Task: structure prediction
Amino acid sequence: MATLKDYRGDLSTWCPGCGHFSVMAGIQKALINLGYEPHEVAIITGIGCSSKLSEYTRTYGFHTIHGRSLPVAQGVKMANPNLKVIAAGGDGDGYGIGLGHFVHAVRRNIDMTYVAMDNNIYGLTKGQTSPRSAHNFVTKTTLKGNKEYPVDPLSTAIANGGTFVAQAFSGDIKTMTEILEKALQHKGFALVNIFSPCVTYNKVNTYDYYKDNLVNIDAPLATREEAIKVVKEHDGLVQGVIYQEERDDFQTKLGIDWKILDVKTGEMDEALLRQTEAMFK
Ligand code: SF4
Result:
């Protein structure tokens, strides 16, 4: 059985106290608890502080380009469905330049987990307003306060057919790890938006802010309408699995057995490979 040491990758350059340390530990712990070995997992990231996760965790990995973790991750899953695929990145990466890919990945329901490490700011480029920054949020790019309103990823995912929509907080690692385990076990596209404070540039959305304001949702809401209503009632400050629905994932809907490559032996199923090639001709 793998240990945290087996998952340890390159030495981190994150600032001391950054929320991303706990997110990384939570992902690694969840994978270990579910019995995954590093060679059975692929982590695909975009660009930003959080996207360094694919280098700091020793699994298969691809540090892609800005906002493009989801298309690449979907390609990885289609090419080798036996891998447990995790896409990850920040709120700027996923809900700014990557927002179109996010909506399509949600509605496509490919079997993978998307971890959005949400610190409400661009950290790597030294503290600019992001698509998740609050209205009137002040940074060097919005000196008189942000005139826009933030993207709501939970409601967007629920409204666009998301089958697993959850939110966690890196300051509550136990709950976060439990939520990540549920996401990794979900058959279909699972979103986990994780509040992960940027201690260097964001002095508003701090650990204390989330400790004081987050509301626990103990069980998924029964309908999409109720789930969106609860998210809106609490201004998005909820923690838990907000909505979950069992539905065939994309590959099951295509109707073929996708076990083409055995990741343990490296052997290809030639007959299935020919069948798949024929489908795309
Ligand atoms: Fe973390 Fe912010 Fe430092 Fe980036 S700049 S590593 S997000 S604390």
Observations:
- The pocket of iron/sulfur cluster is lined by residues 14-15, 18, 20, 49, 119, 123-124, 198-201 (CB under 6 Å).
- The domain at 4-248 is CATH 3.40.50.970 (Rossmann fold).
- The radius of gyration is 18 Å.
